[in-house]
């Protein structure tokens, strides 16, 4: 299927055939680093995270616009968006995997959702997250008391930075658990992308 902008969308079988036919091409994975690391990838993929616009723009500027690029994401939509952007800045030979890595794995007979963690490990991770959030809550309450008592602003700011760093670590852990236990359907993938965009902002 060819889109109005010239981007070509291939089914998994067509995608595989294209890889077999071509001698020189680059496969681009436009997912996040977390997805790339925890969900697997197509062999020899170049990771360029489309959800980090500045990074994506910078990295594709290093690529030859006349080369052939095979692009994929998790479920298809992000791959089309990335290819459409590349098309708008002068890339010509762009092919997107329809249905993304999920469809690819299903085509290869490896579409079973397997969690990286056992049920016991998931429960333990959630308990640890609650403990860490309680600790952060204590830090925030401490900041409130410092403000009430009129403490030195620099000390309050240091506490605020500590809270920010702690929350960043918690967010990372939650996303890891989410990637490995909660994402099965395309709807859940879309939810993840929405959360990622909010965190990046």
From TrEMBL:
Protein name: Putative rhodanese-like protein
Record-level Gene Ontology MF annotations: DNA binding; metal ion binding
InterPro entries: Metal_Tscrpt_repr (IPR003735), Metal_Tscrpt_repr_sf (IPR038390), Rhodanese-like_dom (IPR001763), Rhodanese-like_dom_sf (IPR036873)
Upper taxonomic lineage: Bacteria, Pseudomonadati, Spirochaetota, Spirochaetia, Brachyspirales
SMART domains registered for this protein in UniProt: RHOD
Signal peptide: none
Pfam families in the record: Rhodanese, Trns_repr_metal
The family this protein is said to belong to: Belongs to the FrmR/RcnR family.
PROSITE patterns, A to Z: RHODANESE_3
GO BP field: negative regulation of DNA-templated transcription
Domain Rhodanese: start-end pairs: 21-113
Superkingdom as given in the UniProt entry: Bacteria
